[in-house]
């Protein structure tokens, strides 16, 4: 197993490098880099120094054009444009910028945001609690509901219970997350009906003044609607996966043998079937968490005014803040690849009979 893990760890390097190369190359063809953003602000606001901060360093993805290539730059001094290019690192060829960027990333130096006086790492850490809250609670609730429901549906396969629950989770899966989030706001956050939950934020303004119990209740009061909106679509896939896994195992010979020996149905289900049926479900927990952690958070965070990683990535892409875009891409790409290895290890923990080295051989 150690050799398999070592091979997977070594594969992270070329995989992550390929991800960065593809995205860096694509950005070279995207119009409107950070210098264009600054020029637009200058033309619109008349403030030459508005939006200019101390440095993106070598994390620039686009740019490197001459003064004549910048729309709206005709009224600006050539020296000013040159200083901007040097400040953002766009005075160098793309290959040199990419190599410098990757060298900095290898030393865990992700630079600073172009338009905020804060490092990329500090910015990510600042937004992390919101995304962890949504990802962790959404994943836990999905598992706590979907696994018992999937087992029950497998046991009652073909019954009215199985039919109407299947219809309910399919309808829930079909509802777009943003639409369900808006519905929750209208119904329960002071829209046209009840004002039960707060409209925005992760905590109240007087959070620091509350007691420990008050802080706990305030926290859960604020996250209820965002977590429900994030979780609703996860029930369908996980519930049906659990049901189908149990149905496949129930039909196998060892289950019939266990029943023939006189074992109770609960002993058969939870003593024999559960470990094999839950293999694919439990082992996929890290991947599910990362999927909820990164996927779909932009809309949910925007609707509920939560300042998390989803909004950070979206705003950085819109503003062409390439130091944040590529820094977060590298960090989260690395996390995703490591989580893939953890998922494989989870298979071994759940079922020690699995040997990836023999399967590869």
From TrEMBL:
Membrane topology, as annotated, equals: Multi-pass membrane protein
* InterPro entries associated with the record: MetI-like, MetI-like_sf
Query: Pfam families this protein is in?
Result: BPD_transp_1
Task: Kindly state which keywords UniProt assigns to this record, in alphabetical order.
Answer: Cell membrane, Membrane, Transmembrane, Transmembrane helix, Transport
The record's subcellular locations are:
Cell membrane
Positions of transmembrane segments:
9-30, 132-151, 163-189, 219-242, 277-304, 324-350
ABC transmembrane type-1 domain sequence ranges: 128-347
Domain of life, per UniProt, equals Bacteria
Gene3D superfamilies in UniProt: MetI-like
PANTHER family in the record, alphabetically? Answer: INNER MEMBRANE ABC TRANSPORTER, INNER MEMBRANE ABC TRANSPORTER PERMEASE PROTEIN YEJB
Tell me its family. Belongs to the binding-protein-dependent transport system permease family.
Task: Specify the protein name.
Answer: Microcin C ABC transporter permease YejB
What organism is this sequence from? Mesobacterium hydrothermale
């Amino acid at each position: 197993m150690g050799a398999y893990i070592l091979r997977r760890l070594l594969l992270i390097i070329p995989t992550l490098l390929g991800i960065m190369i593809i995205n860096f190359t694509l950005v070279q063809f995207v119009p409107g880099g950070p210098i264009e953003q600054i020029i637009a602000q200058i033309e619109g606001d008349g403030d030459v120094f508005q939006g200019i901060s101390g440095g993106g360093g070598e994390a620039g993805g686009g740019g490197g054009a001459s003064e004549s290539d910048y729309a709206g730059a005709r009224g600006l001094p050539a020296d000013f444009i040159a200083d901007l290019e040097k400040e953002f690192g766009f005075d160098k060829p793309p290959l040199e910028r990419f190599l410098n960027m990757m060298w900095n990333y290898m030393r865990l130096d992700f630079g600073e945001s172009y338009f905020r006086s804060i490092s990329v790492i500090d910015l990510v850490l600042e937004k992390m609690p919101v995304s962890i809250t949504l990802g962790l609670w959404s994943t836990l609730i999905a598992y706590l509901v979907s696994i018992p429901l999937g087992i029950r549906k497998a046991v009652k396969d073909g019954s009215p219970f199985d039919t109407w629950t299947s219809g309910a989770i399919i309808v829930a899966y079909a509802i777009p997350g943003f639409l369900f989030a808006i519905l929750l706001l209208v119904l329960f956050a002071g829209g046209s009906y009840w004002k039960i939950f707060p409209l925005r934020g992760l905590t109240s303004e007087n959070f620091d003044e509350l007691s420990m119990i008050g802080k706990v209740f305030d926290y859960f009061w604020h996250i209820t609607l965002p977590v429900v909106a994030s979780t609703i679509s996860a029930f369908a896939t996980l519930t049906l996966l659990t049901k189908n896994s149990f149905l496949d195992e129930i039909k196998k010979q060892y289950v019939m043998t266990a029943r023939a020996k006189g074992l109770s149905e609960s002993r058969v289900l939870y003593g024999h079937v559960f470990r094999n049926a839950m293999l694919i479900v439990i082992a996929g927990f890290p991947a599910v968490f990362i999927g909820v952690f990164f996927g779909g958070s932009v809309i949910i965070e925007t609707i509920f005014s939560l300042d998390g990683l989803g909004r950070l990535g979206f705003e950085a892409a819109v503003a062409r803040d390439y130091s944040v875009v590529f820094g977060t891409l590298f960090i989260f790409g690395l996390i995703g690849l490591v989580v893939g290895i953890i998922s494989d290890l989870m298979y071994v923990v759940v079922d020690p009979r699995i040997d990836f080295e023999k399967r590869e051989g």
